[in-house]
Amino acid sequence: MELRHLKYFLAVAEELNFTKAAEKLFISQPPLSRQIIELENEIKAKLFIRNNKKVELTEAGKYFNQEVIALFKNLEQISLKTKKIADNVSGEFTIAYISSIYSSVISKLIQHLKEQFPYVNFKLFEISTTKQIDALEQGKIDLGIIRSPVKSPKIKSQLWFKDGFSVVYNKELIQINTEEEIPNLKDETFVFFNKDYAPHYHEVLLELCAYYGFKPKVVHESNNINSIVQLVKNGLGISIVPSNIAKNNRDLEIGFIELKKVQLFTDVSLITSKEDDSEITKSAVDFLLRFSEK
What sequence ranges are listed for the domain HTH lysR-type (predicted)? Predict the structure, then answer.
């Protein structure tokens, strides 16, 4: 049995038409039919029911189809991992992060990695938590930095730091100096993350407002933390952001008040593939754990 037999089988199984499958494979129909017959003879099982009207998979064919699809997917992952092993010397290493945690530490990480692995091309992408998890499972990124907990058998997660929350406001428009004054914000306009984009984070913000005795009037939404801070600066409302944002913001027009009374935090985690034991990944994780935002 050769890989071409399996590729031909998948084409017929997908099209359920020998003519269309042959066109897709850029071969004529008779050789395709012969290859399928060879395959059936080798595994001693009839895979297709053929007649003048239609082509159908047998029960054995349905099972074989599922297993072959899984086999090719596994081959693709093996190829990706092989490439990544080779990329320890040269190649690409992709790091993803969410907008609410970007800081100078990540910039320093890239500098650190470039010094250690000068022939590797390091790439940074701002990607949502959900998309990071999908990308990591598919081998499209090497390291992710997220907020939400991960439930995936393919991913290893390590806590980077716990982040609290702070109210952010325009100093010229809002007069507030202490956490005790937070309930006075009940009539203000709020800018929040879109609840469909970050449902867990959205619920936490509502819970925070409830702790201070009010339900926020959310008028504006965004999927990017920097856009939210800019909207606040432009006078379109106030917001509640991770305290890490306050630590890394030096804009004198914006004020931050950390919410210390309520014990609500988010875990900022580093995620990698459980199968990834490369020196680059280890170096990156070790660096971030050593220079965390605690």
Answer: 1-58
